[in-house]
Specification:
Layout lengths: L7 E7 L8 E7 L17 H14 L2 E7 L1 H7 L1 H14 L7 E5 L9 E5 L2 H4 L1 H24 L5 H4 L5 H10 L10 H21 L21
Parallel strand pairs: 1-4, 4-5
Antiparallel strand pairs: 1-2, 2-3
Length: about 220
């Protein structure tokens, strides 16, 4: 099948696995006349490399778009469908409409343009690599903001993933508003928190007072006539 001539956009996501925060997707149309060296799967790059490439992509690409699906949408639709929603929003947010969209993975969002899913596309297709970098950098920055808001959970370090430190914080402090309620570790932490709250409420109930009933017996001690 011959592809129609025109612009090609790469699409990828970041944040499907974490226990907190939105899932982020990016779409990028690269400029063949302004190549960017070093593009690769964002997971293989250091944070510094991602930051530098992020700036180059924003400066040299024909157009870029970053979108997300909220925690509420993740809990309502499930993480897969929320990821598809974020990807569709990213494509729709492009200033230029592509003739074809290349999506990392084996599933496609609902789009009004020709699209193809490519397994390991973030390592094989430069436009998808660029999208993976934008999505990852954007989401990491969101996690930095979450850390400022809720420092007890350590979002700046684990980026919302279920590390031992994060799971321990969940058990100790319960879930915050940015945690995904539909994910089992968060649901378990919420159940435990609710159970402890119920136990405290029960312990706080007043103890029923003991009422002693005294029976009065009248004796007639007068001698019989």
């Amino acid at each position: 099948m011959w592809d129609a001539p025109g612009l090609v956009a790469g699409v990828d996501e970041a944040g499907r696995g974490p226990l907190a925060g939105p899932v982020v997707a990016a779409a990028v149309i690269l400029d063949d006349k302004r190549p960017i060296r070093g593009l690769a799967d964002s997971k293989t790059l250091t944070p510094l490399q991602r930051e530098r490439l992020n700036d180059q992509i924003l400066a040299k690409a024909l157009c870029c778009s970053v979108a997300q699906a909220s925690v509420e949408e993740i809990d309502t639709h499930n993480i897969l469908q929320a990821t598809m929603i974020a990807m569709r929003r990213a494509v729709e947010g492009l200033r230029l409409k592509p003739a074809k969209v290349l999506v990392d993975g084996n599933r496609l969002p609902t789009l009004d343009v020709l699209a193809e899913a490519i397994v390991n596309g973030d390592a094989r297709i430069k436009a998808i690599s660029a999208a993976s970098i934008l999505a990852k950098v954007h989401r990491d920055r969101l996690c930095q903001q979450l850390h400022v808001e809720f420092p007890l959970y350590g979002f700046a370090g684990h980026k919302g993933y279920g590390t031992p430190e994060h799971l321990e914080a969940l058990l100790r402090h319960g879930a915050c508003v940015h945690h995904r309620r539909s994910f089992s570790p968060v649901a378990a932490a919420l159940a435990r928190t609710m159970g402890e709250a119920a136990a405290l409420d029960e312990a706080a109930l007043p103890t029923p007072a003991l009422i002693a009933t005294v029976e009065t017996v009248h004796l007639d001690l007068r001698a019989e006539p």
